[in-house]
């Protein structure tokens, strides 16, 4: 169980599912559909949905590329946390938002697998959260021109190592969209 005291709640953390981030991403439509189904499930079950939105020189705040994809929309009462670094906790209000919601467990979805998703997973775990990665609800673009493996291998590797990630007093792991149970720990 989480090492964060008095924080029994779970949140769905939707990271950077923005037009310019997922435009050329691997299996974009399937991943966005999975994220959408999890958002709806979380809302039905009254589980907090927290959105994270990145901006930097290539992703200008207010631009079409910066906006969350048209298939998804944060609800009026759902927090949107703006960030400028890979780790969604770094120099943002995310910890304050999650603390206010009593959240000690995160279910993570979004983009990009080999950047903001990995950074956020590790950032959450070292901060004391239980962290589940939804194995078929994160994606990345093709970075093979710069020496990276193909996107499907990046995703598979991230799923593999996160399945076995551990830390004292915390849980980690992966789960498929169809098996997400917001009331359990994995």
Write structural notes for this entry.
The protein is of the alpha/beta class and 186 residues long. 30% of the residues lie in helices and 22% in strands. It is built from 5 helices and 6 strands. The chain has helices at residues 19-22, 28-44, 94-100, 113-126, 151-163, and strands spanning 9-15, 48-54, 80-83, 103-111, 130-139, 172-175. It has a 6-stranded parallel sheet with strand order 3-2-1-4-5-6. The mean pLDDT is 96.
**Roughly how many Å apart are the termini?**
11 Å
Helix count equals 5
Q: What's the mean pLDDT score?
A: 96
Radius of gyration: 15 Å
What order do the SSEs take from the amino end to the carboxyl end, as H and E? EHHEEHEHEHE
**Low-pLDDT runs:** none
Question: Would you tell me the structural class of the helices and strands?
Answer: alpha/beta
> How many extended strands?
6
Report the sheet-strand fraction. 15-25%
Strand sequence of the main sheet, in spatial order? Answer: 3-2-1-4-5-6
Helix content: 25-40%
The major pleated sheet works out as: 6 strands, parallel
| Bulk shape | globular
């Amino acid at each position: 169980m989480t090492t964060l005291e008095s924080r029994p709640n779970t949140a769905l953390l939707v990271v950077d599912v923005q037009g310019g981030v997922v435009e050329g991403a691997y299996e974009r439509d399937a991943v966005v559909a999975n994220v959408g189904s999890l958002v709806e499930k979380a809302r039905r079950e009254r589980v907090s949905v927290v959105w994270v939105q990145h901006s930097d020189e290539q992703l200008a705040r207010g631009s079409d590329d910066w906006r969350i994809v048209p298939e998804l929309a944060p609800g009026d009462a759902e927090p949107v946390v703006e960030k400028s670094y890979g780790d969604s906790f770094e120099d943002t209000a995310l910890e304050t938002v999650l603390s206010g919601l009593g959240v000690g467990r995160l279910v993570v979805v979004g983009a990009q697998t080999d950047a903001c998703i990995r950074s956020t997973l590790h950032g959450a775990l070292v901060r004391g959260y239980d962290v589940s990665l939804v194995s078929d609800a994160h994606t990345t673009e093709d970075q093979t021109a710069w020496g990276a493996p193909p996107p499907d291998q990046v995703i598979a590797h991230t799923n593999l190592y996160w399945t076995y990630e551990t830390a004292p007093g915390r849980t980690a792991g992966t789960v498929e969209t169809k098996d997400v149970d917001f009331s359990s720990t994995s």
